[in-house]
Amino acid sequence: MNPIPITVLAEPLNDTMIAVEWHGSNDIRINTKRQKPVLIQPTDAIVRITGTTICGSDLHLYHNEIPGMKKADIVGHEGMGIVVGEKVANIKPNNRVVISAMIACGQCEYCQKKLFSCCDVTNPSKEMDELSGYRTCGMFGYSHLTGGYDGIQAEYVRVPYADVNLLQVSEEDYQTLGEKLVLLSDVACTGWHANELGEVSKGDIVGIWGCGPIGLSAIAWAKFRGASRIIAIDCVPQRLAKAHDFGAETINFKEHKDIVAKMKLIVPGGLDVAIECAGFRYTKTLKQLVEKTLLAETDSTDALDEAIRCVKKGKLESGNFERIRLIIANVPRVVAGGRISIVGVFVGKVNNFPIGAVMEKSLTLRSGLVQVQKYWVQLLSIMKINKVNMNIFTHHGNLEDAGKFYKMFDQKENGVIKVFLRVGDQCKNQHER
Asked: What is the Cα–Cα distance from 432 to 346, expressed in whole angstroms?
């Protein structure tokens, strides 16, 4: 399926807005005279943003670690707001909506299978084709490798394929959840996705590497799904304290240098599931630090290496092979004991990956970008009845203060874990509910 050709309106809109722009490494600027977006395709909608966030993934852009950024690109990929553009099928002006970080067409082979992050239509990047063999979907505010779409840290954003990429929420939803609704753009769905990839179920012992917003979301959903123990690894005291509040046991890797030895001590049989939320920037060993410095690799797998070594081995379990049960019955089958779920961001190549341990221990390793649209209706229902802790925001501010909060978030100052940015009229209030 080929992308719909992009057309340009003959009359550009002269109205301006405030937007957060990328201008290079550690250089985030507020542009108060950015041109507002306009409708380009009949399937577009324009959303007036009422709230957005700074995500841990945005720090990769902040450090110029993601290829394909251009000066003055608008950043940000989580947001909620009110539709102000023309009616698009079921999306109408004045509807409250949450915006998916992942931009899908809804019609291609992958979207039909609910693999929205693999959409074949919304990302025209040839560079992504060359880098990975195939393209991801398009993404808001995340470089030209993912389509070059303007981000959501702005007063207005154009949303392609609005029927697919906007979740309508009611006034009741808004009054009940307030700012937590924006987590359905990415964080809440990614935490659930991490549990889905790891098949976390009742009684499992789960280890989670990284206690940032995604890690905390993964903890919350693991608890909701009935994990018997959740063990979280990080080194930032405020994040570890928050993880403990969410129901996890915690390990500070600066106090316990050998995480594998520590884990064997407290979980002798090994973890059932390990969830990697740290990503390529987590470099712990001198070897990987040197290799990254010498550009011998782009990403570190120190956390993933620990996770692989901490999960239990596979086991034999008697049972029938469903598809051939009429031919062979009661034959032992190998069931993976340890499951590895990877949702931390990785962008390039690594050395010294412990592939032998994955094979020899009969592990299941699964990864992938979040399928936001697959999960968000279900998760909205769960969050509305208050069955899961999503109190992730630690700081609130206005869109105009984004530069200050980027620096604070990057330096892990003042206990910051997740920042909610009020936009437009919402800036006049202290913060949303």
From this structure: 33
